[in-house]
Amino acid sequence: MRLSHIARIAAVAAAMVLTATACGEQANLGSSAAPAPSVAQGVSFPAGTTMARLNEAGTLRVGTKFDQPLFGLRGLDGNPVGFDVEIAKIIAGKLGIPADGVTYTETPTRIREDTIANNQVDVVVATYTINAARKERVSFAGPYYVAGQDLMVASGNTTITGPDSLRAANARVCSVSGSTPAKNIEKYVDPANIVLFDVYSKCADALRNGQVEAVTTDNVILLGLVDSSQGAFKLVGQQFTEEPYGVGIAKGDVAFCQFINQTLQEAAADGSYQAAWAATAGKVQPEAPTLPPADACS
Fold first, then answer.
1. 74 strand-pairing partners
2. CB 3.0 to 4.6 Å from 94: which of 34, 113, 171, 263, for a disulfide?
3. CA atoms within 13 A on the CB side of 76
4. Where in this chain does the record put each Solute-binding protein family 3/N-terminal domain (predicted)?
5. Which helix (H) or strand (E) holds 102?
6. In this predicted structure, what is the pLDDT of residue 1?
């Protein structure tokens, strides 16, 4: 009886330690030390513009990811944190909207254009690659970052060394439905070996469970998943595309596009862009990127 009682106490103590550890890991993944962006005071915008409407409303509706460490991950307070989120806050600040005036909608890859076209959000900042097909439905400001597609594998995997090794290894590769990486990987993998989910966290689960041998998407997204895997995953480190991330907005809103581009340029000049990186993705990839040249607004 005495030993049984001691065993129960030990089990409870172990459970408490594990719970505390898990909470600590969750807090670490959902934390961001980015300084609050400055908020423009007394600004005015031309009547009838998106900027004037948002400034008057005092709210910016942002579509972003909730499952991607470093760029857009749901925090303990229910709001996402990450580089994309900080970019959205910088835009809001230039509109005269403080961080607590920003509202977030989870926007997985497959519904990004829909949320803009259906007026559910004002901007989408969600590791959103600019491409011709998407420009048919929405417009883009930016780019604000250029990523590159890579592969994530189990840390002990030495067979997969890059995209050209996938077919010979008969590897099953996971990506997200409707994403640019899912389309790009088709040239390297037999169709039957492509596994698609709605979010990348499910791909990570599939890799952990042995259902696939690799996950593919942009390198910075994979870096976040590697960072949170506690050593289970590694990045192959063979980037094979360029993926310019843009801010998705309503189709044809040239004035709003130009405003966002100017905002990004000012953020790069005053250091707030670099500070946003350092507090988020910079924890894994310390060197701050250079803001890419803006595309023409259309």
1. 80
2. 263
3. 11
4. 59-284
5. strand 102-106
6. 38
pTM above 0.85, yes or no: no
Contact 179, 217 (CB under 8 A): yes
Closest CA to 197 of 187, 206, 188: 206
The span from the CA of 203 to the CA of 82, in Å, is: 20
Q: Give the position of tokens 């519904």.
A: 111
Chain segment 98-120, per-residue pLDDT in tens? 999 999 999 999 999 999 999 99
How confident is the model over 147-179, as pLDDT tens digits? 999 999 999 999 999 999 999 999 999 999 999
The residue type at 91: I
Question: What does the pLDDT look like over 227-245, one tens digit per residue?
Answer: 999 999 999 999 999 999 9
Spacing of C-alpha 95 from chain mean position: 23
